[in-house]
Amino acid sequence: MKKFDKERVLLAVAGPVIALVAAVALTSIVLLASGKNPFEPYSLMLEQATYSDIQVLIINQASMYYIAALAVAIGFRMNLFNIGVDGQYRLAAMMTAVVGAHLALPSFLQIPALMLVAMLTGAMWAGIAGVLKVTRGVSEVVATIMLNAIATSVIGYLTLSDKFGVQLGNNMTTGVMKKSGWFPGINLGSDVGEIYGLVFLAILMGVLYWLVLNRTRFGFDLRATGASETAAAASGVDAKKMVLTAMLISGAVAGLSGLPLLLGDAHTYSLTFPTGLGFTAITIALLGRNSPVGIAFAALLIAFLDKASPALDYATPVAYEKEIATIMQGLIVFAVVISYEAVRVWGLRRQQKQVGEELAAAAANNNSPKEVAAR
Amino acid sequence: MGITKRFPGVVANHDIHLTVRKGTVHALVGENGAGKSTLMKILYGMQKPDEGTIAVDGEQIGFSSPADAIVRGIGMVHQHFMLADNLTVLENVVLGSEKLYGIGGGARKKIKEISDRYGLNVRPDVLVESLGVAERQRIEILKVLYRGARILILDEPTAVLVPQEVDALFDNLRELKSEGLAVIFISHKLGEVLSVADEITVIRRGTTVGTAVPAETTPRQLAEMMVGSELPTPETAESTVTDKPVIQVAGLTVFASGAPSLGELAEPTGAGLLSEDTAETAAAVRRILDDVTFTIHAGEVMGIAGVEGNGQTELIDALIGLKHADSGAITFLGDEITGWATRKRREKGIGYIPEDRHRHGLLLESPLWENRILGHVTEAPNAKGFWLDIKGAQEDTRRIVKEYDVRTPGIDVTAASLSGGNQQKLIVGREMSHKPRFLIAAHPTRGVDVGAQAAIWDQIREARREGLAVLLISADLDELIGLSDTLRVIYNGRLVADADPATVTPEELGSAMTGAASGHLEHVAESAAPEDEAR
């Protein structure tokens, strides 16, 4: 038994490690091709990671990536591709900011209320895609991509100054949220910065994700549907209900992913609110193999690339383009998809062979007919 | 030729010999899983043989892709059509072979020529989406001929057709062979095979077991060759049938157009084979299950014999709740369950050994103990309320592995790493562990070695003694006769005959399976009583 456990750990680690090594190697080739030093940028970026202000930025960014990637992963676990996390997250952040600017409750009610608004908005937006898939058979991939574009327009409309928009300098915002909805952070001093309090929400969600998926009946049904839709249906899973539920949960989680920034720092939704979080989250969920721990590492890695790369522009004596980090992210996606599939197939074969050998050995001892592995 | 094909761990084809002559229709028959598809994939270049050779016109050849095969004049008409709905017939035909005759007038002329020569009656400029199934099939045939095929492989071409269309197809095939082409016709409908083929090769368990000349062969003999009778006999000792009905099915009817519950989800964009209007007309013609009525009592095993594809799958799906009845009622222990969801049926005591264990019975890449939970996630020992009881499930998996002799190094290996027989033992153990009142057992011993087969039979017999009602569907006639208390024969979605397993012979069952006999099968004089009695 122990042997198979070790085996599983090996397989789990092999995929990401191969992917990262391949991505780094390919990035070096790109650097070489453009006539640059193929190794220096890494050491420059690693040096950045030793500064505590950069570390704070990485952790804060990673917390948002983490929640968004969980939203993607929930879909992935049952073969649903929610590309709409970005739209769900932006719309939810905007709605939360609007409610936060107009609703004034004491803190212990205000913050839960805001979270609820974020979850409901995200769930509603993802739910549209879910309903379309269940009732009309519309692919959730197409529907969520469309909804991303629609979300952009809806946000543009709602932030007009005659709706909820408030002009602040040359930035269009939704007005500053009431103080009771600000979530306190951990202040590490003025030159280091503040860690968002909702980083802990991200950790809590990771635990919840693991618990629900691996320890509940619902989670089993969800994973079974992802592993084999036909077997799950035969086991009694109502596929339509499952699709809708998974979309709603994924959307609700996506809705929460903007809150660390919104409640911890920005306190308003504006034109400068980050976009594209949901797309990066797809990379992270892939890299993290949908596992809560894997996603945490992946979120930290991507946040590190994000936050350490700007320094490349100012490096002396030779400056590098910070887009190197973007190239690397892209290469990671490729490498991840390829190496994971290769490792999966290889692992399955290997196990079949091992089981076959072990049984053959046992059979030889017992002198009973040899069993072979079949797929 | 002596082709051998091995997959990791299993030998799918073993020492296959097949010779197809010019100007003939050569039928290849065998049960599902006998290795027909693998053989065809090898002939068509999709897979490579591990041993053996293929020769066309006396010249030994090796294919590495379907493109090579088509160059050699071998073309395949798949069971599932590969046509683009929103293109015209002409466009579909030239797609991928634009170089042959261009895409305009030249191609149209060639299509007309082929169509006229073989009587295919294809109109080049209509949209494929407006066509019915039979016409689509003729386009597929034309596509292959257009690419210069001299040897056509047709994979179960009649599966999707109604009888008149089948006759028309056979006329086309006769045209083809009179022009000197060779046709390989894969089927397990014996009547059709005998009517169209010039030669027949039978495959069983991955190897060729014999050839037959249709004129000198009866469906019975063919069925015997297909099924074989080399296995230990599964005899049931004394009858344990009670008069307490467990499951009653009345007038159960399922239409062909009734989309499977998951089909829509699995392929959201797929419009399916039929466009809407053809689907409606086809539904009027094709009832996959037609007015099926039976009762199984506690302690009774009812066997259903039939050539595969005559409605067995739909019957199972309707009983477990994967497909909903278009009319009729199912009553289980006094409760009408026609509208129940699958999970409720399973919780209330319907056990299910599926036909296709990889698709419906297992999560191949999950560990054995998770597979033990599958299908019974709400029940003890797998769950405590809302939470999974992982310890309990693992404990019970170990028990099943031990009691049912599942050969595995442990319960953490994936289901995919077990052999088919051991996978089956795990499924049987899982279903039996929940003390079902009614068990749907579809091919419970398919792909299982002889020892395990006997163990599974023992399990079914023992449960039967304790009052289990069993619906047994099997391609193995000896298994059916040996295990069942009553026997029914399904043909074209109808229960057309019944028989007493104590006296009936496989030959007599075989003739009813091909539709040749109906009613109550008496041992001496077959086909005497009226059909009503059978239903």
Automatic annotation (TrEMBL), chain A:
<feature type="transmembrane region" description="Helical">
    <location>
        <begin position="294"/>
        <end position="312"/>
    </location>
</feature>
<feature type="transmembrane region" description="Helical">
    <location>
        <begin position="243"/>
        <end position="263"/>
    </location>
</feature>
<feature type="transmembrane region" description="Helical">
    <location>
        <begin position="195"/>
        <end position="213"/>
    </location>
</feature>
<keyword id="KW-1003">Cell membrane</keyword>
<feature type="transmembrane region" description="Helical">
    <location>
        <begin position="88"/>
        <end position="105"/>
    </location>
</feature>
<dbReference type="GO" id="GO:0005886">
    <property type="term" value="C:plasma membrane"/>
</dbReference>
<dbReference type="InterPro" id="IPR001851">
    <property type="entry name" value="ABC_transp_permease"/>
</dbReference>
<keyword id="KW-0472">Membrane</keyword>
<feature type="transmembrane region" description="Helical">
    <location>
        <begin position="141"/>
        <end position="160"/>
    </location>
</feature>
<feature type="transmembrane region" description="Helical">
    <location>
        <begin position="269"/>
        <end position="287"/>
    </location>
</feature>
<dbReference type="GO" id="GO:0022857">
    <property type="term" value="F:transmembrane transporter activity"/>
</dbReference>
<keyword id="KW-0812">Transmembrane</keyword>
<feature type="transmembrane region" description="Helical">
    <location>
        <begin position="9"/>
        <end position="34"/>
    </location>
</feature>
<protein>
    <submittedName>
        <fullName>ABC transporter permease</fullName>
    </submittedName>
</protein>
<feature type="transmembrane region" description="Helical">
    <location>
        <begin position="324"/>
        <end position="343"/>
    </location>
</feature>
<feature type="transmembrane region" description="Helical">
    <location>
        <begin position="111"/>
        <end position="132"/>
    </location>
</feature>
<keyword id="KW-1133">Transmembrane helix</keyword>
<feature type="transmembrane region" description="Helical">
    <location>
        <begin position="54"/>
        <end position="76"/>
    </location>
</feature>
<dbReference type="Pfam" id="PF02653">
    <property type="entry name" value="BPD_transp_2"/>
</dbReference>
TrEMBL record, chain B:
<dbReference type="InterPro" id="IPR003439">
    <property type="entry name" value="ABC_transporter-like_ATP-bd"/>
</dbReference>
<feature type="region of interest" description="Disordered">
    <location>
        <begin position="515"/>
        <end position="535"/>
    </location>
</feature>
<dbReference type="GO" id="GO:0005886">
    <property type="term" value="C:plasma membrane"/>
</dbReference>
<keyword id="KW-1003">Cell membrane</keyword>
<keyword id="KW-0067">ATP-binding</keyword>
<keyword id="KW-0472">Membrane</keyword>
<dbReference type="GO" id="GO:0016887">
    <property type="term" value="F:ATP hydrolysis activity"/>
</dbReference>
<keyword id="KW-0813">Transport</keyword>
<feature type="domain" description="ABC transporter">
    <location>
        <begin position="273"/>
        <end position="517"/>
    </location>
</feature>
<dbReference type="InterPro" id="IPR003593">
    <property type="entry name" value="AAA+_ATPase"/>
</dbReference>
<dbReference type="InterPro" id="IPR017871">
    <property type="entry name" value="ABC_transporter-like_CS"/>
</dbReference>
<dbReference type="InterPro" id="IPR050107">
    <property type="entry name" value="ABC_carbohydrate_import_ATPase"/>
</dbReference>
<dbReference type="InterPro" id="IPR027417">
    <property type="entry name" value="P-loop_NTPase"/>
</dbReference>
<dbReference type="Pfam" id="PF00005">
    <property type="entry name" value="ABC_tran"/>
</dbReference>
<dbReference type="GO" id="GO:0005524">
    <property type="term" value="F:ATP binding"/>
</dbReference>
<feature type="domain" description="ABC transporter">
    <location>
        <begin position="1"/>
        <end position="230"/>
    </location>
</feature>
<keyword id="KW-1278">Translocase</keyword>
<keyword id="KW-0547">Nucleotide-binding</keyword>
<protein>
    <submittedName>
        <fullName>Sugar ABC transporter ATP-binding protein</fullName>
    </submittedName>
</protein>
<keyword id="KW-0677">Repeat</keyword>
